[in-house]
Specification:
By secondary structure, the protein is an alpha/beta fold. It has a domain of 183 residues: Cobalamin-binding domain (Rossmann fold). It is built from 16 helices and 25 strands. Strands 3-1-6-7-8-9-10 form a seven-stranded mixed sheet, with helices on both faces. Strands 2-5-4 form a three-stranded antiparallel sheet, with no helix packed on it. Strands 11-14-15 form a three-stranded parallel sheet, with no helix packed on it. The protein is globular.
Length: 538
């Protein structure tokens, strides 16, 4: 893994630098109608806490979605339609920044954040022209040059931000800090090598800025819209060693780095005692990769429940199927997981291969095995299914089956598989029906989305399958649970936009479908439930 680097606590004593006054700002959000959920800003919390270790002062931590900001909306035009910006205005944000601030750090967690972050950066520079603006997050990692070309920001951090941001604050020569794209004095743009440095041992990190973030307010509304419980968002591990072509995580094939089970258990106990938390929402990309560690954490939560504590946990990003065994499945049930999401993705093996899905050859067999464990444990389960996947590059995969021949094509010396056509979709639906017979409760259908920076996006661009080629006004992420035809952004010869939407509707009609956000019920508005299926909310 490139640029892995650890800094010990004595690092701050080795350099002579001015301790900076820092303002951290979370991006406003974009929704179609109302705020469905809001982030607890874990990333900014870690950034701020680590900067404090070097004596820097976080003078302001601004989340425009708090204190009523989540109800303030303003229409913005995106490609082909209108959406809404949610959160306090840019002017309001600027007024909350102390005048003596040295550096502003902005978290842009999604590609779509540019629709609200770019105007904010202009307003910040207009008001505070001498203050250095540093941008991080998924947007910064995937489209760093775009940020500097389209805004007056000064520095963009590609990848995990703690080390890079602190080295910037510590006045290190910017050209020696890996993972940066920055503006020179003459206005030109330069880039340092690779991604930002990471920690091999993430236990070295301090807790994620509980002193900086308004935890009492965050826990009343979870990142998945749950208001019925007191929810704390946690990350117990970083990275994912796999490289699914559709994945929006910018740094694929990372070294997976967990917090120790001992640290996570202490954090869980502290949150229960300090904030009365009764629901832990794990945001990991791959919680169970180390099964022994996962078992220790789940056993601890299970023991607390057996002592009479009414606590629960959830894994809304899904649980990798190959990380599950019978013991873990039963522990998930004992730990109060009310619904487990399994990333099936497709019931057609050639589609799994085109996605570069881990262990594609045995994925469907393993899924049925795990589904059986879940049924035996009485664990409620929904499977993620990606509808209308367009296909992909299969370089390095040599076990092509004869029945896949109609899907194989070559371009510039590389082998590709065409994506989902009607026959492939029917195979996936048939497979999902077989899971239902085993005991799986439903599916969570998602239409393939070409996030900029992914292999999927590059392939769609190469073959002109994008409905809109990326620009600053393309909205890629919308409401997964309330799909509309205009949300479909891929159009292939074997699946048109219209067909993709029809397939999504068909899947949602014949199966109970579960989405881990609040659901809309007509004139009754949004209802605060944990997980409600389309059928149950109609």
């Amino acid at each position: 893994m490139q640029n892995l680097f650890e800094i010990d606590n004595s690092y701050s004593q080795k350099r002579d630098y001015k301790h900076k006054k820092v303002c951290l700002i979370a991006a406003p959000w974009i929704y179609d109608d109302v705020t469905e959920f809001r982030s607890q800003q874990l990333g900014l919390g870690y950034i701020g806490a680590y900067a404090e270790k070097f004596g820097h002062d976080i003078v302001s931590f601004i989340d425009p979605m708090l204190d009523g900001g989540e109800y303030i909306k303003k229409p913005i035009r995106v490609r082909g339609r209108i959406a809404y910006r949610f959160g306090y205005s840019d002017e309001h944000i600027v007024k909350k920044i102390p005048k003596n601030v040295d550096v502003i750090g902005i978290n842009a967690p999604f590609t779509d954040s540019r629709l609200v972050v770019y105007p904010l950066i202009y307003k910040l520079k207009e008001t505070l022209p001498k203050v250095k603006i540093v941008v991080g997050g998924v947007l910064a990692t995937t489209l760093p040059e775009q940020i500097l070309n389209d805004t007056p920001a000064d520095i963009v951090v590609r990848g995990e931000g703690e080390i890079a941001f602190s080295r910037i604050l510590n006045d290190e020569p910017i050209e020696k800090i890996p993972g940066l794209v920055y503006r020179n004095n003459d206005g030109s743009i330069s880039r340092t090598e690779g991604f930002a440095q990471q920690f091999r041992n993430i236990d070295i990190l301090p807790s994620p800025g509980y002193n900086l973030r308004k935890i009492d307010k965050y826990i009343n509304w979870s990142p998945r819209g749950d208001k019925s419980r007191r929810t704390l968002s946690l990350v117990s591990s970083r990275g994912c060693p796999f490289s699914c072509q559709f994945c929006s995580i910018p740094e694929k094939g990372q070294q997976w780095r967990p917090f120790s089970s001992e640290r996570m258990i202490k954090e869980i106990d502290w949150a229960i005692e300090r904030f009365g938390v009764n629901h832990f929402e794990f945001e990991d990309d791959n919680f169970g990769l180390n099964q022994g560690r996962a078992i220790k954490i789940l056993k601890h939560i299970s023991r607390l429940r057996k002592r009479g504590m009414k606590i629960e946990c959830s894994f809304p990003n899904g649980l990798m199927i190959y990380s599950l065994n019978k013991d873990i499945v039963f522990l998930l049930k004992e730990a109060g997981v009310d619904i487990a999401y399994l990333p099936l993705e497709s019931g057609d093996q050639h589609i799994l291969v085109s996605m570069n899905k881990y262990q594609a050859d045995t994925h469907l067999q393993k899924t049925k095995e795990v589904a059986g464990y879940c049924a035996e444990a009485g664990l409620f389960v929904s499977c993620f299914v990606i509808i209308a996947y367009p296909g992909g590059n299969i370089k390095g995969y040599r076990s092509l089956k004869s029945e896949w021949e109609p899907y194989v094509f070559e371009s510039e010396g590389e082998i590709y598989l065409k994506g989902e056509d009607e026959a492939s979709f029917e195979r996936t639906m048939s497979y999902c029906k077989s899971l239902k017979k085993i005991g799986v409760n439903g599916i969570t259908p998602l239409i393939a989305t070409p996030y900029p920076g992914t292999e999927l996006y590059k392939i769609c661009k190469k073959f002109q399958w994008l409905v809109y080629e990326d620009d600053c006004d393309v909205l890629t992420t919308t409401s997964y649970a309330h799909m509309k035809p205009e949300y479909v952004l891929i159009n292939t010869p074997w699946c048109s936009r219209k067909e993709a939407f029809q397939r999504w509707n068909y899947a949602a009609d014949i199966f109970s479908t579960y989405h881990n956000i609040r659901r809309y019920r007509g004139d009754k508005g949004f209802i605060d439930t944990r997980y409600v299926s389309r059928k149950e909310s109609s």
